[in-house]
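Collaboration report, partner site 2.

Our partner group contributed sequences for two proteins of shared interest, and the home lab folded both. The records are reproduced in the order in which they were received, starting with the first partner submission.
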Amino acid sequence: MLSHLIDWKAVLTIVKPDTLIRWHRKGFRFFWRWRSRAPGRPPLPSDVQHLIAAMARANVTWGEERIAAELRLKLGLSVSPRTVRKYLASGGPAKDSGQRWSAFVRNHAQAIVACDFFVSATAYSDRMIFSFAEFD
């Protein structure tokens, strides 16, 4: 039926099997690349990303909520605090958690009081009370 509508002899092209397989693989790759594309919102422009990092470096006490509020108030950019957190983790300043545990123990070894926990299990009976204590 279609052969009456289209001149199929003019469209006919002879190709090698390797070429046909290559075309098929290329089309399959293209399809899955399209199908597996990242969902969600596009990333912020790079100048806004750099601005977030610069604001975090200049104001170390500000968190993501404060930075998002400043962007909204001063520049009119509506950015979620979670989005700000995402860009702080990748390009922002590293949060210094202060003193490490080993340094704390070393610095305060003279003032630390040694203590231990003990377990005391008590069993009741009609005539006697049994008490078992374990001390370390």
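Second partner submission, folded after the first:
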Amino acid sequence: MKREDWDRRYAERELVWSAEPNRFLVAETEALPPGRALDLACGEGRSALWLAERGWHVTAVDYSGVALEKARRIAERRGVAVDWVLADLLDYEPEAGAFGLVLVLYLHVSGDERRRVLARAAAAVAPGGTLLLVGHDLTNLTAGWGGPSDASLLYTPDEIAGELPELELVKAERVYRRPEDAERDAIDVLVRARRLA
């Protein structure tokens, strides 16, 4: 979807996504010591806000100005500080080796665009730091619930693992969750990788 489409979608309702953090984000990061975090494709900021409330210094990037304005208002109400950055991830270049945690949650772009974003995301991981990617698995198209209907925007755990050669793989697997009002589980990819200290 184009920037204008996302702006329109975010403007249509109070929250497009849940205010609660993604369950896989919580499970994979709650034991990590706070530091600097980078949330790529942050949307309305639920992950960034959750991390900031736990002491992380978060930079959150999205290309929807409408989503970021909503995120700013929520952060103000909750009394947390996040560095909100309006940028297209295809152009955005984060500081190399600067973040203890880099998130790429539910970013679905073409394979070439994804590889470009992931290369920059991996380069931003500090020594000892973690990269966490969660997104709709290719099998979700036929066996799962929700998510993009274009197979070229989906991927598998093995594909993502192969696109992070400079990081050590911790896990690359399919995970399942039941969205509200869904008739069956959504099938996601979860990849966690780290840069050796």
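Feedback sent to the partner group on the second submission included the following. The first helix runs from residue 3 to 12. Residues 76 and 82 are 10 Å apart (CA to CA).
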